[in-house]
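[Automated response] Your request has been received and processed.

Submitted sequence:
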Amino acid sequence: MSDYLKSMPDREGFFGNYGGAMLPPPLEPHFAEIRAAYDKLSKSGDFLHELRYIRKHFQGRPTPISYLKNLSELAGGAQIYAKREDLNHTGAHKLNHCMAEGLLAKFMGKTKLIAETGAGQHGVALATAAAYFGLECEIHMGEVDMAKEAPNVTRMKLLGATVVPVGEGAKTLKEAVDSAFGSYIAQADTALFGIGSVVGPHPFPMMVRDFQKVVGLESREQFMEMTGELPDIVAACVGGGSNAMGLFSGFIDDEGVALYGVEPMGTSSKLGDHAATLTYGVDGAIHGFATKVLLDENGEPAPVNTLASGLDYPGVGPEHAHLQSTGRVTYTSADDKESLNAFYELSRREGIIPALESAHALAFALREAKNHPGKSILINLSGRGDKDIDFVTETYGFGE
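Generated structure:
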């Protein structure tokens, strides 16, 4: 493990000033149980052996890196590569931590998995893990996201999960998290909350990063094998930030590799029109941890907007807030228009239909390539766009 990953977070779950666990008293013993189980199992040969078996023989890891020759020629300048997490079973990076959370639940003697989902990829992945391990599964999803991501709702139900529609507030990811936490409190003796990103109270930001770091470790080795050197720029989209932390983990100690997180700028920089938490947020707390938060005039989490349901969260993983404060990662943004354009371009020019979330990282690469001739850019293609094609074509057409 890298020097950075060994030192962060501290024992209380803080990444510098961000993180921790602000829990209602009834949940404190349950999160202590999870921390103790993870401390033990993360060093257990049996646990790690089974997880490696699952990754190779069920998930289909390692996923490859693809050189995007046609897009590189279109953009001009830097050469663009993509880590193909869209080829991971269930179509996104989410299964990397969901199978591990399912395995953790099994070792802890739990019988049920509970979670929230935005774009539905986490929900599908957790439902897949529940089916694999013979566990019950309950997924909370905002009604707006259910309408946008109908194929993933169908998948979750086919996999045996109970999908709970959330109709409060903006009916998107924040409300789904609120609803799932409320349900979990009543079932914590028998259920594990499978948090879907590097967010939430400690130990989840650390655990999910650790389970996702396989993406970065594979990428580092594969890129060296392909090109004989490390990439100059590594970029990933950031909502909660799990796919980005997974990719960044492979390069975090390489000072010569520039790391970029790409937030959703939505339709404008006006509060309520975007979900760019690190760009416009302030220090605060949400869902039991300290981080950057988008707040309204009343000091409450602000409404957010992005065409990518998996990025519509008014907070961000605490490790990202820390990495921004240290300057190790630069956080920028891509708006709906350029991300949609990237979605169409990758589909037409490379034969790969990306998730709208991943299209934000691709939009960054297309925009930045011309400024870095002779350099290389590696993005995380964190998911495939099967879930988005109905929404995109019905709303925006076929990009002609």
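Summary generated for your ticket: The chain has 16 helices and 14 strands. The first helix runs from residue 3 to 7.
If you did not submit this request, please reply to this message.
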